[in-house]
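pasting for the record
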Amino acid sequence: MTDAVAAIPEETAPVPLLEPREGLPPVVADEAGLAETIAAFAAGTGPVAVDAERASGYRYGQRAYLIQLRRAGAGTALIDPIACPDLTALGEALADAEWVVHAATQDLPCLAEVGMRPRVLFDTELAGRIAGFPRVGLGPMTENVLGLTLAKEHSAVDWSTRPLPEPWLRYAALDVEVLVELRDALEQELDAQGKLDWALEEFAAIANAPKPAPRVDPWRRTSQLHKVRRRRQLAAVREMWQTRDRIARDRDVSPGRVLPDTAIVNAALAMPLSAAALQAVQGFGPRVHRRQLEQWMAALQRAREIPEAQLPPATAPHEGPPPPRAWAEKDPVAAARLSGARAAVTELAEAHNLPAENLITPDLVRRVSWEPPAEASEESVAEALRGLGARQWQVNLVAPAIAAAFVASLRPDPDPSE
């Protein structure tokens, strides 16, 4: 770190941040309150701090259950997006403001669901990564950079609870209390390190990213799926996962609260033939009602009846290069390229004091190593990286190192006898 934003000295105790400076605002939960909030924030100045609270682990999906905003001249607002589900007008009122968000990729999807999308973004978590901070959670960043501590005891509560308890609301309000000050300090730090342009390019890429395509075969993300080897058993996992997903969606609860992943995998491995046998599988047991057992048994029966040709493949459909562990056998030359490129990226990341995955994503390194340009030149590698979606600052730093690694991988190993 530079002196601009050095961590606070050990002898200086961090100051607890306990109360919003203007007091705890009421929750905006009707059209009149929303209109007043929109007018206040439209008249505010400077960046706007934005945060959202979800009910991960409690409810189905990742919708927002509380949205917090803070802006100079407007103060802090707490908005209930269940009572006010369309916040398009608020998003438009803030269209020309820079949004300051911590870990933006987590919050932007649920904000977009209610009509709020930033045009200009500053992500304080990503800024911390690029600046080389070892701990980039909001609490550690606020403490290390500003010398203030945030209580985080309510981070994993059920934010779908209504009414929200006052201590939870205070916690939520404090999450945006000094977010703009943190942004300003990190901007100074990045500028002092010569990394500000890198960060701004990353922020723009996040703000302008298209909506991700739906995941193919989401059931394959079931925990411990690697234990399931047979295709018929994979079909059982798929049928049970889809049944659980439907139940969870209908009940608006987290799928894991309907049935744990481990129970699905255990049932697929055992393929029980009766409800009693299923009840003996770990993860089920006497607390599972008869009707629920019948649903899971029906899913297992569907898996048994699927024609052999229609069973899911043993491995997920895959685009791009094979897993790196298979490279040495499939293409030793490509494996040598990848090894050299990885080492070069790691060395470069350490020299610039930032995580290697933020310097360039591992997937891009694999892809350019598996299908390299015809010529292992800096210009050709740069063009290939740009075509794969690398940002220009990444290309400028990484292309020369990867090109040199590709050239080096073609040289024969020295004869140890010489």
